[in-house]
Amino acid sequence: MGRQEGDIAVELHTREWGGGERTAVLVHGITFDHRAWRRVGPALAGRGYRVVAVDLRGHGASPRGTGAGPLERYPLAAYAEDLLETVPAGPELAIGHSLGGIVLADAVARLAPARAVYVDPSWRFRQWGLDPTAWAARQRAPREQVAAANPRWEAADVDVRLDTLTRWDADTAVALAAQGSDLPAAPAVPSLVVRADGSTVVRAGDAEELRARGFAVRTVPGAGHNVHQDDHEGFLAALDGWL
Question: What is the predicted pLDDT for the residue at 130?
Fold first, then answer.
């Protein structure tokens, strides 16, 4: 998939599971691609969904951005436009993780899913700090380091992680570090936030603030930032009543 010269949005690479009448859209976090959902996609398909997972621009098999510098290639607003260009409007469910949570929140009013789920969304990433140099260094991490950093992952997740890093444009981190976002003022649709245990991006005070703004908030005990990969069954359990 590609884009026409001069278009603002790009059509993203997608992976689909299932053929149900209900549609679910999955949006991954920075440095990953659609394969981060390799277990979630089939699980949702088994529950009657047609699941569409995207690769964000600069990730996986999707196009890189165009422009003179990282900010021109990867402005936050462009991710939402790409998503809206690619996936069907009005899905039953939309799930965004980390950066994908920012993208989904920016697109949700126009995407108009029946329900939205934000998995440890990095809405206040500027407040907690982002070092693009350190993120880029992850591309050189050996398998042993990746496995040690993610002890609850299956070997296949480690394989995927190593490959997704080779397909990721580190300029996305450079651009992200120069931008900012914040907690949504209110949910545009019924919305659930699924936090990591001891989340560093949705801290306890953020969780209370989100509840006050109308979001449901749940925490998966023992799971790190990549909740759905750290504890697949726990993540699905946290979605009880939302699928």
Answer: 66
- Give the start-to-end residue ranges of the domains of the chain: 14-238
Token code pair at residue 175: 């651009």
Write the DSSP symbol of residue 39: T
Residue 218, φ and ψ in degrees, nearest 5: -130, 150
Locate 8 and state its tokens. 């603002």
| Other beta carbons less than 10 A from residue 151's beta carbon | 8
Tens digits of per-residue pLDDT, 196-205?
999 999 999 9
DSSP 142: -
Q: What percent of the chain has pLDDT over 70?
A: 95
Chain segment 105-137, per-residue pLDDT in tens:
999 999 999 999 999 999 998 766 667 788 888
Nearest partner of 218 among 201, 196, 233, judged by Cα: 196
- Of 215, 175, 186, 218, nearest in space to 199 by CA: 218
Burial of 188 (0-12, 13-18, 19+ CB in 10 A): middle
Q: Give domain 14-238's CATH architecture.
A: 3-Layer(aba) Sandwich (3.40)
Q: Which two tokens stand for residue 157?
A: 């997740």
Check pLDDT > 90 for residue 70.
yes
Strand partners, 157: none
* Rounded Cα–Cα distance for residues 80 and 71 (Å): 15
Single-letter residue type at 122:
S
Contact between residue 32 and residue 105 where contact means Cβ atoms under 8 Å apart? no
- Angle at CA of residue 159, ends 173 and 226, nearest 5°: 50
How far apart are the C-alpha atoms of 183 and 206, rounded to whole Å? 8
